Amino acid sequence: MSKVHILEDDHFHDHCGVFGVFGHPEAAKLTYLGLYALQHRGQESAGIASTDGGDLHLHRSLGHVQEIFTPQALENLKGSAAIGHTRYSTAGDTTLLNAQPIMIDCNKGKLALGHNGNLTNALELRRRLEHRGSIFQTTSDTEVIVHLVARSTARNLPGALADALNQVEGAYSLLVLTRDEMYAIRDPRGFRPLILGRLDGAWVAGSETCAFDLIDADYVREVEPGEMVRISRGGIESLRFAPEKPHQYCIFEQVYFSRPDSIVFGRAVNKSREQMGRLLAREHPADADIVVPLPDSGVPAAVGYADESRIPFRMALIRSHYVGRTFIEPEQSIRDFGVKLKLNPVREDLEGQRVVLVDDSLVRGTTSRKVVRLVREAGASEVHVRISCPPTVSPCYYGIDTPRREELIASQKSPEEIRRFLGADSLGYLSLESLRAAVGDTQGKYCTACYTGVYPTELVQLEVEAHREG
Ligand code: SF4
What we know:
Elements: E1 3-6, E2 16-22, H1 27-37, E3 45-51, E4 56-62, H2 65-68, H3 71-76, E5 81-87, E6 102-106, E7 109-119, H4 122-131, H5 142-151, H6 157-165, E8 170-177, E9 181-186, E10 195-199, E11 202-206, H7 209-215, E12 218-222, E13 227-232, E14 235-240, E15 249-250, H8 251-257, E16 263-264, E17 267-268, H9 269-283, E18 290-293, H10 299-309, E19 317-319, E20 326-329, H11 337-342, E21 343-345, H12 347-350, E22 354-359, H13 366-377, E23 382-387, H14 409-412, H15 415-422, E24 426-429, H16 432-438, E25 446-447, H17 449-452, H18 458-469
Parallel strand pairs: 15-25, 18-22, 22-23, 23-24
Antiparallel strand pairs: 1-20, 2-5, 2-11, 3-4, 3-5, 6-7, 7-8, 8-9, 9-13, 10-11, 10-12, 13-14, 16-17, 19-21
């Protein structure tokens, strides 16, 4: 009997994307388009909440944005304001209950909330709240915020939100919708992006500018770390809800997560990635004939590497964009079946060539090992692997799904051992110093904990140290 083959993906997984519109007659449809552009940030579930001033409407489901929102579903999402969320679960499992936006009716009124990030003290807060009688509907960390808002003694919603958020730790970019207001909020360290824009007099907010481009909205500015932007018919108001903390923008957004056509943390992602490739070529030159990217995410860094080294760029690995998660494999086993479904080498380009193979990151190393074999079998005489970020040695606790530390190849093996594991002729990683330079980080505003193991929040750092000592 044929068996079902689960395709592997050797990347850190994306987290979530948020998008919202306030003051536009087609708010839900525009939010749907925004989520479509942010689909790469989460492909397990999506939802939209809208308001017509009288009530809040909600539609959520498991699956991709395109499948979830039928014309009828969008028709039912009435009103001139909407927020949407697309999700890959980083906390809580993949059930419909955990899909967002979360909607509640509490003493502060009816509200919907969409969260990108991860709260590092959610479990502790949840236990405390349950002890005091709170009943949780989901296993998601986001619900903790909602319970804290409901329990706050503050008289108005901004006060209750500030109360709640000053008790949580970690990463959050939030959109909150009430009957007549929308809030865009970013944690004081600013781990995840959140931006504001305008469209035909309406306000829009979202994770990345690629979503603004699709609906022809104009980029205005980032929501500042520690800022709560309140949008109502009366206009826009900026409130600070937490004291200033050192900024910790996620550097992996620049390396891999965000779309290359987006501007994230005020910087064009494609430009950052090309610069990573250029600096990689300076740090780890190779005597080679062609530069080949691992598509799609390795392309900008490979362009930069080829540019700097003056070695010709070749798209000698072709990616299939139509691959699902599972596949039926024939009885007769095919070597590296999963990788071959996704990538096919162009023999004519590779035959007899010394190849620089550029990828954006190396997590477990298992897929890269197969790709190196694929390239050799297609005739390459040498394969030099170049990675456009430093060795990934530590998991992320700030809204990215990462394997356990033991599964990260760079936490277990030296670069020379990894080279041998991959079967490559040479291996070079971009240094942390150059990565910071490539994203223009002159003031230490980026989080780099997955490369250093030094975490910017106290609770996580203490846990990690206790784990190491234990
Ligand atoms: S640990 Fe890594 S992935 Fe997580 S926020 Fe920091 S830089 Fe980003």
